[in-house]
Structure formats: C-alpha cells, structure tokens
# Entry
Amino acid sequence: MMDATHPTDCASCPIRDIALCAKCDDGELAKIARIKSTRRFEAGQTIAAQGEGIPLVSSIVDGVAAVSRTLEDGRTQLAGLLFAKDMVGAPGEGQAAYDIVAKTPVTLCCFERHAFEAHVEEMPHLASRLAELALDERDAARAYLFLLGRKTAREKIASFLLFLIERQRQMAGSEAPGIIRLPVSRDEIGSLLGLALETVSRHLNGLGRDGILQILDHRRLRILDRAALERSSGDAPAPMTPRELQVIPRKSA
Amino acid sequence: MMDATHPTDCASCPIRDIALCAKCDDGELAKIARIKSTRRFEAGQTIAAQGEGIPLVSSIVDGVAAVSRTLEDGRTQLAGLLFAKDMVGAPGEGQAAYDIVAKTPVTLCCFERHAFEAHVEEMPHLASRLAELALDERDAARAYLFLLGRKTAREKIASFLLFLIERQRQMAGSEAPGIIRLPVSRDEIGSLLGLALETVSRHLNGLGRDGILQILDHRRLRILDRAALERSSGDAPAPMTPRELQVIPRKSA
DNA sequence: GCCCTGAGTTGACAAATGTCAAGGTGAGCC
DNA sequence: GGCTCACCTTGACATTTGTCAACTCAGGGC
# Structure
C-alpha cells in the first residue's frame, strides 16, 4: 500500500514555508523532524481509507490526490482534489471521513500521530498553523461549492479548468505556461462536476472547436484564449445592467 | 447592521461544550469571557461581507446562516448553511472570503479579534480546539459536496432534507420529531442544490404525493416515511449486486 | 506483428430539467 | 375588507444532458 520511507531534508522542502511547520523555528523543526518520514504513493493507490484509523498526520509535498467515497456497490464518487500543502490525516481525526486516493505520484511528509499531537499541545506555532491550514481547506472546499452552483456543463468545465490553472500556477514551474495537466480522466472530471463522462468529452472538445483551447493529448491541454475561457465559466465579471437583487438563475438546463 | 451587545453567562451557554471554548477550564474561560460579547442578527441581515475585514471572531450560538456570494449584478449564490457552533470570523482571517447572511434570527458569541488571537497563541487548548472546529467545517463542506455529486433533482432534495434532519437533531429540542423547518425559500434551496426553484417545488410536492412527507406550510414539513426518504436520496445503501469498480453514474439527466 | 484493454470520441435518442407564463395563497397594511 | 407583494405552485414547451451504442486510438504483453 505504500512505498518505503525516505527521510529528506526540510531545508530543501518545497512546502517548507506553507506546510504545518511553516511557523516553526529551527529548534522546533528539529523536534518534529525526529518523528518525520516521507512516503510515496503511485497514481491509483489509496492513501487513506474511509473509516480506517490513520496512524499518521501528513501533508502533500508533491502530486495530486482526490477526496473520494466508495459506495457499497464499489463505485466511486469524487468530491475534490488535494494539492501540495493539503493535509491528509489531521491531528485529532480518529479515523478518515472519506477515502484519499493518489491521482498522480504523491509524496507525503508524515508524522507519527500520537507524538505529533503531543507536540501540537506544547507548540503554539504548530497549533495555530494547523488551524490556519484547516481554515484554508474549509475555504477551498467552499470555493469548490461555488464552482458547481447553478451552472451549465460548459461553465462547470471552464470553471474547473480555471481552478486547475490557478492551482498549478501556485506550485510554480510544473509545466510550460498555458499548458494544463489534467490529473484525472474524463470520467473522474465528470464525477467531480456531477456530469456524465460523455458530456465532459463533448464540451472539452467544444471548447477546442471554439478555439479557446487545444487538446494536446488526453491529459494535457493548451489554453489559447484565457479571456474567453473566463467568459465561458459563468463567473460573471458580469453584464453591466444592475438587476434586482435575486438568486442566480442556473444558466440553462 | 447588528443589534446591541448582550453579555450572557457561559455556564448556561448551549454550545459551551462544542464551541471554541470547549476545552477551556474555568480560569481560561474567565480570561476569554472578558473580551466576549453576544450579538444578534435578524433573518436577512448580513453578518459578514465578502472582502470586508471582520473585527470579530465568533461562533453561532443559535440560528441558521448561509455562506453566499454576491455577483456583480447583485444576484446571490449560496454554497452552504451554518448552524450552532460554526464559526463566522476566524482568527487569522484577514477578511471574509464570502458573505455570511442570517437566514433565521442568529445569535453569535463574539470575541474581539486581536485579543482573541493573542489568547490563541498562549492557550494550547484554544488553538487545538480552533483547529478541530476548522477541520469539522472542512469535513462538513466536503460532505456537502458529496451530497451534490451526480444526483437527480429528487435525490438532491431528499439528501438535503436528510441533512437538515441530521443538523436539527444535533441541536436537539428545536422542533417536534419528524418535523423539518426549512430555513430558506425554494429559490434558495435551488441555489444550494444547483436547481431551478420550480424543480425544487415540483419534487418537494412529488415527495408529498408519494406519501414520503407532508408539506405543513412553506417552511415546515413532516416526514412520514424516513426509510423511503433515505431510499430516495440515492446514497446507496446499495443494490446487492457487486459491480465492477467504476465511477458513480449520475442517476439520470 | 497482433490482440486485448482502457480511455476517449461521436451519434442518435430519450428523459430530466430549465424557461416562460399564468395563477394561487398567505401575510401585512391601509 | 380588500389591497399588494413575496413566495409558491402548476402547466406547456424548449433545451440540455444522460443513456446506449458503436467506433477510434494508444499502449502493453505475448
């Protein structure tokens, strides 16, 4: 289920400044480094399973994972993606609330749960950083909810692409500018957006036909017209006519 | 924008055991009580506005609020509901990420931000409780995402009702058992579920015609057949035929 | 090379949902 | 009482999207 442990150096850690340890000074860092290990998962491997206890607290150093749920009949429903700095098991979580599955090769920075929780209680830096990260993830989940509200399939897909662009920009240098790497299949994009995989395929190709993007291969797109993509997302930088205060109508069926 | 300040007693606080202060001992409680105040908002009032700084850190003591976003043209999109114990401004949040609007009368327990943040740094109980609450809210937002994935309108509505039942059960005694109070209009339910208000109305009445529930008035329902409601929610306690591992198909158009 | 598999694409059709429009109901107010 | 207004309901119709099915394409193993 998981690869060997690779101890690594915090000084060269790509998420040193944004991870749980971001506020720790060198002394504190040395303390938690003692209970630290690095783990690697290949695409497709389950990092944490719903209902199982997680003996580790960890953050994603590199790669993309999905928050998912497996139904009794074996089918899978996705509810979001996790990127560098996102936490996988958190202190105080008795057991995982859902599955976390690697969608690309994922590197995790892990701490032994029990020891980590003890450190949290004595290092205010760590506790408050933990709270900040948890609030960030809450806000990310909410932002994702806004991405899905009352939109057409095309708008959802455009929004999703913009979301990926934003995420990939944050962890800079991953790809040539203007290129999006899709970490998931058409079917999984459908699961993330509540659409059928055929609908995803059609609208992705539709955006291509409209000259907004170019499909390089199944997992890579080139954005040709970012402004048009934004207009397609339905996230109204808005018509100029101020209408009465009302709830957003879904753009169509 | 907000009512007068009403100092109240923590000993009789309905969220004493689940709020930010849950882990605080009497001494710590006394400390933070000094910077505490209670505020009340009427239904419809904006508690926090997107982009504005929030000078207070607070938790909902009673009532229901919505996480929402206002588009440039004045229309509103909802992305979730907030109940007792949920936080409204959190420590470390420079400014609100979205609007928070009261949907019923809401009572908040508020702390002056700057002083509260200082307390967080020196009280590990407070910091770790804050992190727990933030993680809870992250998980609630994710659970809500699962509620929306690849479902028909009827399934979404049934799931939403079950979600409300669960929330109302937690803050016990609010209503006779089997009665659901809807904190929002049909239009707002539509915004929460990504549906047209007419679709919400039709399926709500459809559930009524099927004997699953009874519409008492626009804001109150009686659940007549909880098991059938669960079956209608699409959250598969599942057909017994184990199928191949695949992504959940949307149940229909 | 060949076959097999998984993923993606495309088309035809059906069904669910959105849109438009008309009408109903209840609360508050004069 | 009888307004008005907001909210809800209901119907008819248009459109999007899902479903089913066939086909293509690329990769891996033998």
Q: What stands out?
A: Strands of chain B lie at 36-41, 46-48, 56-62, 65-70, 76-82, 99-102, 106-112, 179-181, 213-217, 220-223. Residues 238-246 of chain B have pLDDT under 50 and may be disordered. The helical segments of chain B are 26-33, 113-122, 124-148, 153-170, 186-193, 197-209, 226-232. Chain B has seven helices and ten strands.
